[in-house]
Write a structure and sequence with these properties.
- The chain has 296 residues and is mainly alpha-helical.
- It is 80% helix and 0% strand.
- It is globular, with a radius of gyration of 19 Å.
C-alpha cells in the first residue's frame, strides 16, 4: 500500500468517526458512558474476531505473549480515551468538545519527540497548527467558560494521542493489524463493562432506545473504523495520521448539520478550508521535498 492510499484510508476513518458523534450524542440520553463504551467495543471485538482468527492461521508464527501485551497497551489507551470523551460530553458543550478533542493533532508529534526521540517532517508542525485552528473555527471560533467536562475532554485528547502513537509503533513491525484491533477492542470493552457494572445503572428500556446508536458505533465506528486506522497506520507516520484523523471534526460538523439540523457558522467554512489545506500539506510536501533531494 502506498502512503497516499494509507492516508485516504485514514480520511475514510475520520469520516466514519465524524458520523459517530451523532450516535454518541443521542445514546447518552438513555444510558451511561461506561455502558455505552463497553457494549460498543465488545460488539467491535465480535465483528473483527473472525477476521483476526483467519489472519492468525495465515501467520508464519503464533502470536507471542510480548506482542499480545503491546496490543493490550493500545487497548488501555483507547479505553481511557473513549471513556473520558463520553464522560466529558455529558457536561461540556459540543463546541468545546470538538475543539479540545482535536488537541491530539498537536499531542501526537510532541509525544513522538518525547518518547521516540524522533523529529517528524518539518511540515507536520505548521500543518498541525493549521488543523487545530481549523477545528477551532469549525467549532464557532469561541470557547465558553471551561467546566469539568472540558478537562475530561483534554484528558481524552491526550489518551487518543497516545493511542495513535502506540498503534503506529506496534503495527509497523507486525503482520497482525486485525489482531491488534481485536485485542484493543477486547481490552476496551471488557474494562469499561467491569467498571460500569459497579458504578452505573442501566435499564432495558434505555438499552433498547440506544440500540441503533450502539450498533452503528460498535459495528461501523469501532469494528470497521478503528481497524481501518490500524491498517492505514502501517504505511504512514503517527503525526501524519493525526492530521488526517483530525478531519473527523469536519465530518462531525457535516453529519451534525445533516441529521441533527445543526448549522455551521460562516467562520466554520473557513475552518474546513484550513483543515483541508493541512491535509494537502502533509500529503504533498514530503513527496515534493523527497523528489527534489533525489534530483540533486
Amino acid at each position: 500500500m502506498t502512503r497516499i492510499q494509507a492516508n485516504l484510508i485514514l480520511l475514510l476513518t475520520a469520516a466514519i468517526w465524524g458520523a459517530a458523534f451523532v450516535s454518541q450524542n443521542l445514546a447518552m440520553k438513555s444510558m451511561g458512558p461506561l455502558w455505552f463504551v463497553g457494549i460498543r467495543f465488545m460488539i467491535g471485538f465480535l465483528v473483527v474476531l473472525p477476521f483476526a482468527l483467519r489472519e492468525d492461521r495465515r501467520s508464519a508464527k503464533p502470536l507471542s505473549l510480548k506482542t499480545g501485551l503491546t496490543f493490550g497497551l493500545c487497548g488501555i489507551a483507547l479505553l481511557a480515551g473513549a471513556v473520558t470523551q463520553q464522560i466529558g460530553m455529558l457536561t461540556t458543550t459540543v463546541t468545546n468538545a470538538s475543539f479540545l478533542t482535536g488537541l491530539y493533532v498537536i499531542i501526537v508529534p510532541v509525544l513522538s519527540v518525547l518518547i521516540l526521540r524522533k523529529l517528524p517532517h518539518w511540515v507536520i508542525w505548521p500543518a498541525a497548527a493549521l488543523a487545530l485552528t481549523g477545528i477551532f473555527y469549525l467549532s464557532g471560533g469561541e470557547l465558553s467558560r471551561l467546566v469539568v467536562g472540558d478537562f475530561w475532554i483534554i484528558l481524552c485528547a491526550f489518551c487518543f494521542g497516545m493511542q495513535v502513537l502506540l498503534v503506529g509503533i506496534f503495527v509497523s513491525g507486525s503482520d497482525r493489524p486485525l489482531g491488534l484491533s481485536a485485542i484493543q477492542f477486547l481490552v476496551t470493552g471488557a474494562g469499561a463493562l467491569v467498571v460500569a457494572a459497579f458504578v452505573e445503572p442501566i435499564t432495558w428500556e434505555g438499552l433498547k432506545e440506544a440500540a441503533p446508536h450502539i450498533l452503528y458505533s460498535g459495528v461501523v465506528s469501532s469494528g470497521v473504523a478503528y481497524t481501518l486506522q490500524v491498517v492505514g497506520q502501517r504505511w504512514t507516520t503517527a503525526p501524519q495520521a493525526a492530521i488526517f484523523l483530525a478531519s473527523e471534526s469536519l465530518f462531525g460538523a457535516f453529519f451534525g448539520t445533516l441529521f441533527l439540523h445543526e448549522r455551521i457558522p460562516p467562520l466554520g467554512y473557513f475552518g474546513c478550508a484550513l483543515i483541508f489545506i493541512a491535509m494537502l500539506l502533509v500529503e504533498f510536501v514530503p513527496e515534493f521535498t523527497k523528489k527534489r533531494s533525489v534530483v540533486r
